[in-house]
């Protein structure tokens, strides 16, 4: 029944999807944390920059960002991100686009986590003489991190699904292979079922495991 | 000014802030200068390339406006179809009968776990193989199909969370005065839940508008996104200018929707007399994980 799969490297395609997800997740966690730090910090200029970044990037479709990375950055401005092969360049551009987009959501998730800590706790901490670093590392961040596991898990799942947008610039991931297979084979339902199953396998366990973790570690208030 | 992270600032902290500001400004200026020189080097800043958008109406009437119309049409159609479908699925998921609840739950979890693009590609092939939909209309049908399948399951979760957010006393009292279960749902729970859900529903529209761009990039749906390449080909390789204009249009539409949703949320929160929650703008992101059930009391109600 599934002999139409022969001649197609399904593993390779889903492996590319996973690679896109992991690299973009790490990148957007770093850049998103920096943005969140700017947004909750005391310097008005940095706060303004963080707010502007989040509001602008969140409202642009990811497709526009990724196509801009390919048509604008690469083909018009000649930025190739240190690679001379088209495939590698497109892969890196897709990761760049995903990081730019996802970090806005990571930033919002982290910020909401910091905001869940009641102000009274920090005031109490300062009142007993803890300095800024101690307030941050002993009181605020441990609670903040525990409350953002759930929202961050959602961002990660959305990112996994968003990696399919890389198909728009020809990165050989699952959605592109699915499109190609549907064009070549007359097995619409079976092909779709295989790819749907693949994505369910990627996203559902992530949601279940991280959902369980977030309930486990959340600070009950 | 009271924040969890820092206190009202003294003279030393204020001086430090000034130093940080100057350093940050310098870094930002350096990046902007780098971008500027690069654009200038490739001749992307020449007025000829930007002129079509600011002086004449041709670029707007030929490329941008028809594309925008298609984007809005697909988004509106998807919303109008997905809302009732989502309401039915959401209510079915709350049913007391397992044979209704379990399939509805399975459908919702399944379509939330799959990327919209995969659903759109499936839709396009479906319409070309099994129906006689006109080839020109197929991309629109496919985009709407993908968006409806995905968003009706997201909306189902919003509806469910909205109903669950109501105090249990509401349905207990209604049952006590002798209403049937479906009357409780229709007359007591849904009207209250709909108001609670409004901000979340409006901000889901932003997600839909953004996702239509996938159709433009992958399915040859002639939307706003798809206007970029013919436009930049016609006006002499003004890729950067075309992308900028298109991105600005998306930002304006979505920012207006987001602001409207936040305004609505604030208004509903302020005017609220009962104890039920208001499903806020943030609820949409938090509802989007498959497999994770919404814990209404903790996640959705963020207080007054």
TrEMBL record, chain A:
Coiled coil: none annotated. It is found in: Cell membrane. Gene3D superfamilies: MetI-like. Residues 14-210 form the ABC transmembrane type-1 domain. Keywords: Amino-acid transport, Cell membrane, Membrane, Transmembrane, Transmembrane helix, Transport. The keyword Cell membrane applies. It is a multi-pass membrane protein. GO terms for biological process: amino acid transport. The chain crosses the membrane at residues 20-40, 52-73, 93-112, 124-145, 151-176, 188-213. GO terms for cellular component: ATP-binding cassette (ABC) transporter complex. GO terms for molecular function: transmembrane transporter activity. PANTHER family: AMINO-ACID ABC TRANSPORTER PERMEASE PROTEIN YHDX-RELATED, MEMBRANE COMPONENT OF AMINO ACID ABC TRANSPORTER. Belongs to the binding-protein-dependent transport system permease family. HisMQ subfamily. This is Amino acid ABC transporter permease. It comes from Streptomyces liliifuscus. The lineage of its organism: Bacteria, Bacillati, Actinomycetota, Actinomycetes, Kitasatosporales.
Automatic annotation (TrEMBL), chain B:
PROSITE patterns: ABC_TM1. SUPFAM superfamilies: MetI-like. Gene3D superfamilies: MetI-like. It comes from the Bacteria. InterPro entries: AA_ABC_transptr_permease_3TM, ArtM/GltK/GlnP/TcyL/YhdX-like, MetI-like, MetI-like_sf. GO terms for molecular function: transmembrane transporter activity. GO terms for cellular component: ATP-binding cassette (ABC) transporter complex. One of its GO terms (biological process) is amino acid transport. Pfam families: BPD_transp_1. Keywords: Cell membrane, Membrane, Transmembrane, Transmembrane helix, Transport. The chain crosses the membrane at residues 18-36, 74-94, 106-128, 140-166, 187-209, 240-264. It is a multi-pass membrane protein. It is found in: Cell membrane. Residues 68-261 form the ABC transmembrane type-1 domain. Belongs to the binding-protein-dependent transport system permease family. This is Amino acid ABC transporter permease.
């Amino acid at each position: 029944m599934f002999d139409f799969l022969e001649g197609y490297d399904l593993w390779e395609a889903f492996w590319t999807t996973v690679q896109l997800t992991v690299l973009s997740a790490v990148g957007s966690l770093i850049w998103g944390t920096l943005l969140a730090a700017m947004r909750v910090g005391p310097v008005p200029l940095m706060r303004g920059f963080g707010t502007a970044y989040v509001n602008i990037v969140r409202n642009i479709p990811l497709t526009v960002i990724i196509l801009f990375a390919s048509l604008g950055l690469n083909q018009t401005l000649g930025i190739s991100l240190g690679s001379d092969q088209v495939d590698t360049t497109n892969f890196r551009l897709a990761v760049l686009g995903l990081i730019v987009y996802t970090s806005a959501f990571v930033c919002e998730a982290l910020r909401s986590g910091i905001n869940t800590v009641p102000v009274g706790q920090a005031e109490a901490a300062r009142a007993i003489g803890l300095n800024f670093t101690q307030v941050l590392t002993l009181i605020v961040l441990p609670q903040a991190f525990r409350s953002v596991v759930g929202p961050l898990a959602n961002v990660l799942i959305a990112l996994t699904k968003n990696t399919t947008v890389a198909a728009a610039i020809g990165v050989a991931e699952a959605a592109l292979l699915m499109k190609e297979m549907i064009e070549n084979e007359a097995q619409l339902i079976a092909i779709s079922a295989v790819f749907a199953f693949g994505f369910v396998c990627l996203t559902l366990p992530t949601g279940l495991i991280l959902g369980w973790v977030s309930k486990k570690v959340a600070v009950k208030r | 000014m009271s924040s969890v992270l820092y206190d009202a600032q003294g003279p030393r902290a204020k001086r430090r802030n000034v130093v940080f500001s100057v350093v940050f400004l310098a870094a930002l200026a350096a990046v902007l200068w780098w971008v500027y020189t690069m654009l200038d080097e490739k001749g992307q800043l020449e007025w000829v390339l930007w002129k079509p958008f600011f002086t004449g109406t041709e670029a707007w009437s030929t490329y941008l406006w028809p594309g925008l119309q298609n984007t809005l049409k697909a988004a509106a159609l998807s919303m109008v179809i997905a809302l009732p479908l989502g309401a039915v699925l959401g209510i079915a998921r709350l049913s007391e009968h397992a044979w209704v609840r379990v399939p509805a739950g399975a459908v919702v979890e399944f379509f939330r776990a799959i990327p919209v693009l995969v659903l759109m590609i499936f839709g396009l092939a479906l319409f070309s193989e099994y129906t006689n939909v006109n080839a020109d209309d197929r991309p629109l049908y496919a985009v709407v199909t993908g968006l409806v399948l995905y968003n009706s399951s997201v909306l189902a979760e919003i509806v469910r969370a909205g109903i669950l957010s109501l105090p249990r006393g509401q349905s207990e009292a209604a049952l006590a005065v002798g209403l049937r279960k479906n009357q409780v749902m229709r007359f007591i729970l849904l009207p209250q839940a709909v108001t609670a859900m409004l901000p979340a529903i409006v901000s889901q529209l932003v997600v839909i508008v953004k996702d239509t761009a996938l159709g433009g990039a992958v399915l040859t749906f002639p939307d706003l996104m798809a206007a970029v390449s013919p436009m930049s080909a016609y006006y002499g390789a003004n890729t950067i200018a075309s992308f900028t204009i298109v991105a600005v249009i998306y930002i304006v539409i979505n920012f207006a929707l987001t602001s409207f949703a936040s305004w609505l949320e604030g208004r509903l929160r302020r005017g609220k007399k009962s104890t039920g929650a208001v499903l806020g703008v943030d609820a949409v992101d938090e509802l989007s994980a498959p497999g994770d059930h919404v814990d209404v009391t903790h996640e959705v109600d963020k207080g007054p």
